[in-house]
């Protein structure tokens, strides 16, 4: 990816790892991002993410802004950029993948593994942490042959 691409998504960082939160309007991207920030992650971008050579950042006009539904737009500390290592596709419970989905596919734009997540689940923040641990090699993601 040579030219910058703007994506309708949100992005958080934990250490040097970035996680892109993708889904349609109203899917819960900003709400999950708020919960991640509350859990110690850094805000990178909300609503729109600029991707360039694997790095995510906020468009300048939106840097440090987080939309909190029912409250408004809040200015917050933010990380200027982070390397994206995984993509979380936010899905509703009716669109949820099987209990043991096949090995993660790679996102066509970002090029990183895609995981599916219901953002309304109480464990959503913990699941994001687990995804980042697996991508970093700190935990092992087993496939059906290894069970």
From TrEMBL:
<dbReference type="InterPro" id="IPR027417">
    <property type="entry name" value="P-loop_NTPase"/>
</dbReference>
<feature type="domain" description="HPr kinase/phosphorylase C-terminal">
    <location>
        <begin position="6"/>
        <end position="75"/>
    </location>
</feature>
<protein>
    <submittedName>
        <fullName>Phosphotransferase</fullName>
    </submittedName>
</protein>
<dbReference type="Pfam" id="PF07475">
    <property type="entry name" value="Hpr_kinase_C"/>
</dbReference>
<dbReference type="InterPro" id="IPR011104">
    <property type="entry name" value="Hpr_kin/Pase_C"/>
</dbReference>
């Amino acid at each position: 990816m040579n030219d910058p691409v703007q994506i309708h998504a949100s992005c958080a960082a934990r250490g040097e790892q970035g996680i892109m939160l993708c889904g349609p309007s109203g899917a819960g991207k900003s709400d999950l991002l708020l919960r991640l920030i509350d859990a110690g992650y850094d805000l990178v971008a909300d609503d729109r993410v600029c991707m360039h050579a694997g790095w995510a950042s906020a468009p300048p006009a939106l840097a440090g802004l987080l939309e909190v539904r029912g409250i408004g737009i809040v200015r917050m500390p933010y990380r200027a950029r982070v390397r994206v290592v995984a993509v979380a596709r936010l899905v509703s419970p009716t669109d949820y993948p099987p209990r043991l989905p096949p090995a993660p596919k790679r996102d066509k734009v970002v090029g990183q593994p895609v995981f599916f997540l219901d953002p309304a689940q109480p464990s959503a923040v913990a699941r994001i942490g687990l995804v980042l641990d697996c991508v970093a090699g700190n935990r092992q993601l087993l496939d059906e042959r290894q069970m």
